[in-house]
Amino acid sequence: MSLEPVTLQQLPTDLISDLLPQHVAVIMDGNGRWAKNQGKPRIVGHQKGVDTLKDLLRCCKDWGIPALTAYAFSTENWGRPRGEVQFLMTLFERVLRRELQEMKEENVKIRFVGNLEDLPTSLRQEIDRSMEDTKNNQGTQFTVATNYGGRHEIIQACQAIAKKVEQGYLKANQVNEDLFEQHLYTQGIPHPDLLIRTSGEMRISNFLLWQVAYAEIYVTSTLWPDFDRTEFHKALATYQQRDRRFGKVKS
Ligand code: FPP
Predict the structure, then answer these.
(1) Model-level pTM?
(2) Minimal CA–CA distance to 25: which of 242, 219, 241, 228?
């Protein structure tokens, strides 16, 4: 694959704009290994990972991709060492506070999905503020999955629907895919067309289980902090070569 030796500010010419994914989701894996490779503590990898995410968000804007979703913290991540969890919570809060103005100026609409109630109060306040302040923005839709678990999301949707049936607002035979989706955290956000996972692991790791049903999956051995525009270009070029049939035969 030949890649242009430019800064990639604009959509690379080998990519077809009409065939770009409309929504890219990323599992940002490999921060710890990246830091270890440099002889640094794991948290340095997370810090660098923020810069990578920020540039990817801007790249989506530059290249005309309307939606990006990032898996920032899973329900399983609470099992990490206490210091690392605390660092991540503080990092999310600090990044939000620092970047909010710029996101507003760049017309980004940010939304957090997950079990947000269990997050530290000060982080929740920043999350609420960022969602409120950007809710009318029409630019890139940036979704951050925080304290997110796909199974938990599905269970809470089932419980909410069951409650409505129990209370007589709904009949069981009215439960269909559209209704179910309205009870997911991601309600109103289109499904990802492309799911990227860095650092080589071939797993979904409880991320957007319902929503990635027909997403194209791209796994790269590149560690998240090194996932730059050249790497994104490779992912998109691979995506554009895929034959998406959605279970049908080729027309
Ligand atoms: C996975 O790498 C990375 C994380 C669990 C955290 C990702 C979070 C960020 C990049 C910050 C995002 C910030 C905002 C505000 C959205 P790992 O630690 O599992 O790496 P390893 O597999 O090499 O140990």
Answers:
(1) 0.94
(2) 219
